[in-house]
Design goal:
aa-tRNA-synth_II/BPL/LPL; SH3 type barrels; 5 helices; BPL_LPL_catalytic; BirA Bifunctional Protein, domain 2; 13 strands; alpha+beta; globular; 8-stranded mixed sheet; single chain
Length: 243
């Protein structure tokens, strides 16, 4: 496992993408930072983290070789790897808030940003950015955030968590090679936050409505059953969950 440790950087994803272009690097090369100034989440949202407290890293995965239309399976298996990692520190009650926020105790504990490298309609490689709240205990202006330390009451080794995370990523990427994508989607759906529970959503027009999460499509759209029992599918820009 090749680990590049940095003190501060704009973004571990950006740093890793630059060295991929400039030099040949090995599978599961990792860039970590104690602090990043321009960490981003889904749809360009900003990821904020206290210096040295949390696990901020990007992982390079080579030779994925799946069709572009199946790209959501990467998000699914990375989410499952994080759920498995949290289980190792006794956070067994963790869930995936679609598409790939990780929740514990109904609060966000981890965010994921995956940037795929595409060639001829195939995803060849991926840069997997992960921000996991480990030892930070105060989240100013972020009432829905939490950390491992807040939930279990003790500090944890970020290095040990990273080691477990990479092992779990390898485990699920190997499953992608050896089993059908459908089995990974089934595990992902089983771990979905608020699946089959009444939830409130807001669409891109600002309209609020109720429904039940029933699963995800192969392309990663969220399947929601509405009041008339009609199931509609929504992509990330079309819907947000309010509770």
């Amino acid at each position: 496992m090749n680990i590049i440790k940095l003190d501060a950087i704009d973004s571990t994803n950006n740093y890793l993408k630059k060295i991929i272009l400039n030099e040949g690097i090995t599978d599961y090369t990792i860039v970590t930072a104690k602090f990043q100034t321009e960490g981003k989440g889904q749809l360009g949202t900003k990821w904020e983290s206290e210096h040295s407290k949390n696990l901020i890293c990007s992982v390079y995965k080579k030779n994925i070789n799946i069709k572009v239309q199946d790209q959501f399976v990467i998000s699914a298996l990375v989410s499952l790897a994080l759920i498995k990692t949290l289980g190792k520190v006794n956070l067994s009650n963790s869930y995936i808030k679609w598409p790939n926020d990780i929740m514990s105790d109904n609060k966000k504990i981890c965010g994921i940003l995956i940037e795929n490298i595409v060639k001829e309609n195939y995803i060849k490689d991926a840069v997997i950015g992960i921000g996991l709240n480990v030892n930070q205990t105060i989240f100013n202006n972020l009432p829905n955030a939490t950390s491992i330390k807040n939930l279990i009451g003790t500090s944890c080794s970020k290095d040990e968590i990273l080691k477990d995370l990479v092992e779990n990523l390898e485990y699920y990427f190997n499953k992608l090679d050896k089993s059908s994508i459908n089995s990974i989607f089934k595990k992902y759906e089983d771990a979905l936050f608020r699946i089959n529970k009444p939830s409130t959503f807001k669409n891109s027009n600002g309209e609020v409505f109720s429904g039940y999460i029933k699963g995800v499509s192969r392309s990663g759209k969220l399947n929601v059953m509405l009041e008339d029992n009609l199931v509609e599918s929504y992509d990330l820009k079309e819907i947000s969950m309010l509770n």
